[in-house]
Model the fold of this input.
Amino acid sequence: MAKHTMIFANGEVPFPEAARRFAEAASLLIAADGGLTHLQQLGLEPGLLIGDLDSVTAKQVVQAETAGCKVRCYPVDKDETDLELALLAALEYGCEKITVVGALGGRLDQTLANIHLLTLPQLLGIDLRID
Done:
């Protein structure tokens, strides 16, 4: 059971050292596709990499797998965003709290879509934050 899951998305991470401190205290780290880059730059490895993997290199994926990361690869043509898949996966691990980093910045459409994910009915009752 992962009480506190921290998900790294592929948006901006303006305070990487603060993110690292929070991540080190989390029970589970999930990389939503390109969020893997943020984690690896911080010297952290996720327990799960999830998404269509169009924002990471094969070398990054192999590095994560070698470190023990589970990988769930989805087709590019899917109904869910990579972050949505990560949020739903966090629920499978029995999390009670989810902190999302890198969900904002960059493309406005993706930022708005990520904020809208906070309203997913499956997440009702979960302490969910975008930091």
Observations:
- The longest strand covers residues 4-8.
- The mean pLDDT is 94.
